[in-house]
Amino acid sequence: MLDSALELVPREIVSHPAVVKNAVRRGKKAENTLLDISLHYKAMKNLENANKRGRPDIVHFALLLFLTLEEEIRGDLFIHTIDGKIIFVDRQMRPPKNYNRFVGLMEQLLLEGKIPPKGDRTLMEITNLKLKDLSRKYSSLIVLSESGRKVNPADLCKLMHENVLFGVGAFAHGDFSSEVKESASDFLSISKNVLETHQVICRVSIACSGFLS
């Protein structure tokens, strides 16, 4: 997932009434809560790239979908956040279906650096990698974008055994960051329509299931 709208409340708006109200209700410090446009809309109006930020629900839905795919088509999974973090996600990770529990888990991850904070098995972890570093570990980074070259989803499946990293945007509006554009090997599109993150995952996974069978 690229430019994912997953981050803690930035310091510029920690004192805004909408942010403080939500933090007090949850018994947390404002800076330790997840940025969410459904709660912080008024506070976010003057933030840079506000239209791309505060949508952890997109990541939640995509994780639930991806991590229940068949083993044969479920590869490595990373979350690249809008502020440049690279989060490793274990294939055995089972995110909570309840959104409020997911929010708490992501807050813990962004504060502690990994989930669980202690223990032998790490399910999610913030790495020291940058997107460019991650892309170099694979033969190429192919970004799925509405403005990319049109291909059939099944064509992507033919690349499954070539150590390719596929990227899909996990934000609501706007364009990919310069970091993504500079790291990508190619931009491809699987539809003439604008698709949401989970729709892209669905279409590609269905195509690859058919390809493998």
Automatic annotation (TrEMBL):
Keyword terms: Methyltransferase, Ribosome biogenesis, RNA-binding, rRNA processing, rRNA-binding, S-adenosyl-L-methionine, Transferase
EC numbers, comma separated: 2.1.1.-
InterPro entries named in the record: Alpha/beta_knot_MTases (IPR029028), Rbsml_bgen_MeTrfase_EMG1/NEP1 (IPR005304), Ribosome_NEP1_arc (IPR023503), tRNA_m1G_MTases_N (IPR029026)
Reactions the enzyme catalyzes: a pseudouridine in rRNA + S-adenosyl-L-methionine = an N(1)-methylpseudouridine in rRNA + S-adenosyl-L-homocysteine + H(+)
This protein's record includes keyword Chaperone: no
Pfam families: EMG1
GO molecular function, one term: rRNA binding
Domain of life per record: Archaea
Binding, S-adenosyl-L-methionine: G169, G174, S191, K192, N193, V194, L195, E196
GO biological-process terms attached to the record: rRNA base methylation
Site entry: Stabilizes Arg-xx: D57
Site (Interaction with substrate rRNA): R55, R94, K97, R101
Family: Belongs to the class IV-like SAM-binding methyltransferase superfamily. RNA methyltransferase NEP1 family.
Function noted in UniProt: Methyltransferase involved in ribosomal biogenesis. Specifically catalyzes the N1-methylation of the pseudouridine corresponding to position 914 in M.jannaschii 16S rRNA.
Summary of subunit composition and partner proteins: Homodimer.
Protein name (database record): Ribosomal RNA small subunit methyltransferase Nep1
Organism listed in the record: Sulfolobus acidocaldarius
Classification lineage: Archaea, Thermoproteota, Thermoprotei, Sulfolobales, Sulfolobaceae
